[in-house]
Design goal:
The chain is of the alpha+beta class and 705 residues long. Helices cover 20% and strands 32% of the residues. Strands 2, 3, 4, 5, 6, 7, 12, 16, 17 and 18 form a ten-stranded antiparallel β-sheet that branches. A nine-stranded antiparallel β-sheet has the order 1-8-9-10-11-19-15-14-13. The radius of gyration is 30 Å and the shape is globular.
């Protein structure tokens, strides 16, 4: 101290000479010294393999998008739009349909819900994910479409800007129709009983703003109100008056899917239904004229507020062409501030977004092996002794060396990043080092967790989720096996940082066998069914008592017979419930239904959608002509083809008969009086003079709980 005392008494120099290095002495380019450009993920559409997701949020309002265009919108813990975790179909979310009024061609702004047809024949569909936005681009002939999705940085809402660019020689009139199912309730409640949840949503239309409003009727005096609005702002030549729809049954049509929605494929105008519609949607339609060499823009806004007055203020504020540019600027600014605040680089943020995909959509590549899952299967209560609820997805990190603490700190940053994007995750860090008196690794883990949690939070709200630091030597073997079994993502610290483990998982995904390919189009076109296999002419309907055009009674009232010609459906699912005291199933006239054991609600074997509009089939019998590739089903659903399907519901059985492709089929389904067995007997008759090779494929979507 005495040796340095004189230095403390020296005065600071008033003028400091600054010498700049010569250009040849500088080893880093000037561009590298500034802020690095944000990492952007570019994908070709449609994307094969596991689901790719992207999260956008301002801390209160969150949007999750997949590369196919599906996803959800949520405000705090309220689901704004309906979404289900379905990595196979991936058909839930907010979408924009486009239709050329001259040719009748229909496609969507993203791969879903119109499938691969949304990209042009040359395959120019592209998806771009940035930290503050998402973009979907495709081309339909000479018309290029571009959709940009942004979450407002200052208000609770989102905007989807559709840009149409006509590079052809003739003007194009394009109808743009938005669609989203409205929830405005908690996610868990809507998942448990969607049909009941739908009953409380009311809608109205404000013509002065061209906006659809929705609110949920409170079920109790203390329940908070939620209001949402959906409106469009057009920049270009409007070719027709705007249209709107809030009744899902009128938009889809009975027995149709979103890809075959009647409001889109028929070209008919939207009905303009509002009020207590029992199954509410937001659907707006704008028709624009795009001259050669010009462009048009349509901004579809969705905003949420706790009261009607605040909602109207948001509509008035954003019903302007400049609102999108302001929202885009604020979203970019907020994204940069968030990354700087959390100490996350742009490359790390992109890795965190990639790792969020198996958290949102379960992916076998990131979970434990099948034998480990079976070995560790157990009740959720097995996690409670470690303070883990099991209600949120779990990310598990196993570490046994203090040299790998960098992976712990990185995953703590990822956890904070996900919660900032309103993705609720429980992070569990398991110290697998052998027990000893020196617990340096555990001390380092606890210190890193405390440091991460003591940092000031960006914004007022975070999603649920916590960090748990556990010692393997203090856990029972069944508890460790259960934790590995239920974890959505399992990471091992010694395998390196997240980027390296993402690359390793991608390599393993390439080694897995691909899903079965669709029937080759050229083979299906090259071969043909026998001449006698043409669709038979519809025979006269059988003589039925009290026939109403679709069905009536037969055999002295012991059977109800439904006769469905091609494309026909009953107004609602007409069901037959067949069961013994411990086992049963239900089946509709179209063939959709579900099977259960003991209790039809608590122990379903196959799913029941409780959706009287689309009525998707969780069980089916597919038939295919091996020579021609023609495909049909034993019942009216899921494959609608020409010909008549007759369903007979009787006491304890249902019988379906159909003629298609020169093959007559009869499917009998029943349950024995005492055994927990569903018996389906399928009989095929060849109506042609030539031998036929027909494959039969039973399908069941398992729930098992």
């Amino acid at each position: 101290v005495q040796a340095c005392e004189l230095l403390l008494q020296e005065r600071m120099p008033r003028d400091v000479a600054v010498a700049h290095p010569r250009a040849e002495e500088v080893r880093i380019a000037a561009a590298e010294q500034g802020a690095r450009a944000p990492a952007v993920r570019r994908l070709r559409a449609p994307v094969a393999g596991a689901v790719v997701t992207h999260l956008l949020s301002n801390g209160r309002y969150a949007v999750m998008l997949t590369a196919a265009g599906a996803g959800y919108s949520r405000w705090r813990d309220i689901a704004v739009t309906r979404w289900r975790e379905d990595p196979t179909a991936d058909g839930w979310g907010s979408f924009v349909f486009l239709r050329d009024t001259a040719s009748g061609a229909v496609w969507s702004a993203s791969t879903q819900p119109a499938g691969a047809a949304s990209a042009s024949a040359s395959g120019t569909g592209e998806v771009l994910f940035g930290e503050d936005h998402a973009e979907f681009s495709c081309r339909e002939g000479a018309l290029a479409t571009h959709m940009e999705v942004i979450v407002s940085g200052e208000d609770d809402g989102e905007v989807r800007r559709m840009t149409l660019v006509n590079s052809g020689r003739r003007p194009r009139e394009i109808e743009l129709t938005s669609y989203a199912e409205v929830v405005l309730a908690g996610v868990a409640g809507d998942n448990a009983h969607p049909a009941f949840s739908k009953l409380f949503v009311q809608t109205e239309y404000l013509p002065e703003f061209g906006a659809l409003l929705a609110t949920r009727r409170p079920r109790s005096h203390g329940e908070a109100t939620v209001w949402a609005a959906h409106f469009a702002v057009v920049e270009g030549e409007v070719a027709a008056a705007p249209q709107y729809e809030s009744d899902r049954a009128r938009f889809l049509g009975r027995g149709q899917t979103l890809a075959t929605a009647a409001a889109i494929t028929s070209g008919a105008p939207l009905s303009g239904s509002t009020g207590t519609v029992l199954d509410a949607v937001f659907a707006l339609r704008q028709r624009v004229r795009v001259a050669p060499g010009t462009s048009a823009r349509v901004d579809f806004w969705t905003v949420v507020a706790p009261s009607r007055a605040e909602l109207l203020d948001l509509i008035d504020r954003h019903h302007d062409r400049n609102a999108f540019d302001r929202a885009k600027t604020l979203a970019w600014t907020q994204a940069q501030v968030q990354l700087r605040h959390t100490g996350v680089t742009a490359e790390e943020a992109a890795d965190f977004q990639r790792l969020a995909a198996p958290i949102v959509y379960a992916d076998a590549a990131w979970r434990a092996p099948a034998e480990a899952i079976a070995r560790g299967a157990g009740p959720q209560s097995g996690l409670w002794p470690h303070s883990i609820s099991g209600d949120l997805p779990i990310v598990l990190l196993r570490i046994d060396d203090i040299e790998d603490m960098a992976q712990v700190r990185q995953l703590l940053r990822a956890h904070e990043y996900w919660r900032m994007k309103r993705l609720g995750v429980d992070l569990v860090i398991v110290n697998e080092r052998a027990a000893s008196y020196v617990q340096d690794l555990q001390i380092a883990i606890d210190s890193a967790v405390r440091t991460s949690q003591s940092r000031p939070r960006f914004g007022a709200e975070f999603a649920q989720g916590a960090v748990f630091a556990l010692r393997a030597d203090l856990m029972s073997v069944p508890a460790r096996a259960l934790l590995q079994s239920v974890a959505r993502v399992g990471l091992v610290a010694r395998r390196g940082p997240i980027a390296e483990q993402l690359a390793l998982a991608a390599q393993h995904a390439l080694d897995r066998p691909l899903a079965a390919q669709a029937w080759p189009a050229d083979r299906a076109k090259g071969a043909s069914a026998p001449a006698d296999a043409a669709a038979p002419a519809s025979a006269p309907a059988p003589a039925l008592e009290f026939f109403n055009g679709l069905g009536g009674f037969d055999r002295d009232g012991s059977e109800y017979v439904t006769v469905l010609d091609a494309g026909a459906s009953t107004p609602a699912p007409w069901l037959n419930v067949i069961a013994n005291p411990d086992f049963g199933f239900q089946v509709s006239a179209e063939g959709s239904g579900m099977t259960w054991a003991v209790n039809s609600r608590e122990n379903q074997l196959t799913p029941w959608s409780n959706d009287p509009v689309a009525d998707p089939a969780g069980e089916a019998f597919y038939l295919r002509d091996e020579a021609s590739g023609a495909l049909w089903s034993a019942t009216a659903l899921p494959v609608r083809t020409a010909g008549r399907c007759t369903a007979r519901h009787g006491w304890g059985y249902s019988r379906f008969s159909r003629e298609a492709e020169g093959i007559a089929t009869e499917l009998l389904q029943y349950v024995p009086l005492a055994d927990p067995v569903k018996i389906s007997r399928l009989t095929l008759r060849n109506l042609t003079d030539a031998p036929r090779r027909v494959s039969v494929t039973p399908y069941a979507q398992w729930i098992l709980g």
